[in-house]
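Lab notebook page, bench 4
Experiment: in silico fold of construct C2
Operator: M.H.
Input chain length: 349 residues
Purpose: comparison with the prior construct
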Amino acid sequence: MKIGPIDIDRPILLAPMEDVTDLPFRLLCKRLGADIVFTEFVNSDGLVRGSMKTRNKMSFLAEERPIGIQVYGGDVGAMEGAARMVEEMDPDIIDINCGCWVRDVAMRGAGAGLLRDLSKMEKLASAVVRAVRKPVTLKTRLGWDAASIKIVDVARMCEASGISALTIHCRTRDQGHKGDVDYSWIPRVKEAVSIPIIVNGDIVTPQDVRRVFDDTGCDAVMIGRGAIINPWIFRQARHYMAAGQLLPEPSLQERVDLLKEHLRLAVMYKGERTGVIELRKHYAGFLRGMPHVSRIRMELMQFTEAAPILDHLSRWLAVYAPAGDPLPRSFQGDALLAGNETVLAVRPD
């Protein structure tokens, strides 16, 4: 897949996700094999008004390259001005969000709301492309609803507007994240345009990654929620495509180690209290499938400082995997966490 100077064979991308793809999480996914990462959504109105909170969402490190900054909005002028401000941050890609289905965005004519006004989407895309020198990509959905799927026309419009690549979440806006994805449109889009086509939606396993590449002929895949529950998926998928074999699931030791590293990065770049609180959403993903994960999550949620979290995880790890090995499925018994009055039954949930 070639986007400007970026040239990667069958890349696997981390999708832009609000309140998820901040700097610490992007760093982890990059280190685990994500070829291109994207920031959270950047509000064009907030950016042109000078909001520091909005501007801070665009901060990134050289280690994350290639990286895309995604911007959204429904006002052509604001999007044009915001794109210039984004370019000043020197990302590798500027991405336009035309796929967010959330009511507060879509019903105000931004995100997937632009699928109800393709003329406006064209004006907005063309204005952003003209405003900057960086490659501009666009992310959208199949259509507003099942009765108004015009993704082939959208792809042709994007190519004519100078868009360098198109990402398609293979659901309609009214589906949100529910219902089946429909990859059948991708071959038709590929026949209609020559720009790279990136596929998104329900790609959660290494097998999904290879199947989507093989079945659709797409140029890249983009992983969203699948990375939240399994940030190792990038490494796993790359290995599976190359060797045809699945890597072992991360051990309990690996899961806890990565969670600790995420905590360290969150505190480093966001401050202790904010970093700890914002990390809470990731506990379920990092520790999924582990014994008594619900109870451990509840205990971790009470902390607002890093030290007790690190201590709690270390003591939990010592109980369940003292040798750092994966927990045997047949493991049973009772254990008392030293320094903690909570007695945990060591049995699979």
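Observations: The chain has two domains: 2-243, 252-345. Residues 14 and 223 are 5 Å apart (CA to CA).
Next step: discuss at group meeting.
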